[in-house]
């Protein structure tokens, strides 16, 4: 991968660089509630069934669509339309908005654990969607996901 590739425009990244931009926080794998009447989006503590709550990674990334057919494949083209539902700390959203990565991002810090030490990941506080019904999601809304 190229030096400082994360500073380039997103549409100039190679597929490998695009994947490497992910900070590993796991926040995009949290289930969300979209209120039809207002369009407001609420994040919950409820994670996708495939999210590993410790590593904050997908337990079946390559085959995730076999288990979660509506899992979104993030691409530079799609990002323009869906960046609003990504967490404010997301590297893809930050770069799409022309902002730099946080110091805790492993591409800056050189340490994949720094996202967790900074408290910027979902490590240790999610509930798998297999453990709760969708009716209970509202009880698990996160007020601040920054």
Architecture overview:
With 146 residues, the chain is α+β, with helices and mostly antiparallel strands. It has one domain. It is built from 6 helices and 3 strands, in the order αββαααααβ. It has helices spanning 15-20, 64-67, 76-82, 91-96, 106-109, 114-117, and strands spanning 30-34, 41-47, 127-128. Strands 1-2-3 form a 3-stranded mixed beta sheet, with no helix packed on it. A hairpin with a 6-residue loop joins strand 1 and strand 2 (41-47). The protein is globular and about 45 Å long. The mean pLDDT is 92.
Order of helices and strands: HEEHHHHHE
- Quaternary state, please? single chain
Number of domains: 1
Indicate the structural class. Answer: alpha+beta
Helix fraction, binned, reads 10-25%
Q: How many helical stretches? A: 6
Roughly how many Å apart are the termini? 29 Å
Strand % is: 5-15%
User: What general form does the structure show?
Assistant: globular
Low-confidence stretches are: none
Calculate the mean pLDDT score and round it.
92
The side-by-side strand order for the widest beta sheet comes to 1-2-3
Task: Characterize the largest beta sheet: strand count, sense, and whether it forms a barrel.
Answer: 3 strands, mixed
Number of DSSP-assigned strands: 3
Radius of gyration: 15 Å
Organism: Paracoccus alcaliphilus
InterPro entries: Puta_zinc/iron-chelating_dom (IPR005358), UCP006173 (IPR008228)
Protein name: UPF0260 protein SAMN04489859_100136
Family: Belongs to the UPF0260 family.
């Amino acid at each position: 991968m190229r030096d400082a590739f994360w500073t380039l425009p997103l549409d100039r990244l190679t597929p490998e660089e695009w994947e490497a931009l992910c900070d590993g926080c796991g926040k995009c794998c949290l289930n969300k509630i979209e209120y039809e009447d207002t369009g407001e989006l609420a994040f919950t503590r409820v994670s996708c069934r495939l999210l590993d709550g410790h590593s904050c990674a997908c337990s079946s990334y390559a085959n995730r669509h076999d288990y979660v057919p509506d899992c979104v494949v993030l691409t530079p083209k799609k990002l323009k339309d869906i960046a609003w539902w990504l967490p404010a700390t997301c590297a893809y959203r930050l770069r799409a908005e022309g902002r730099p990565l946080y110091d805790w991002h492993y591409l800056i810090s050189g340490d994949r654990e720094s996202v967790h030490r900074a408290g910027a990941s979902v490590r240790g506080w999610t509930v798998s969607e297999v453990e709760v019904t969708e009716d209970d999601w509202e009880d698990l809304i996160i007020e601040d996901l920054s």
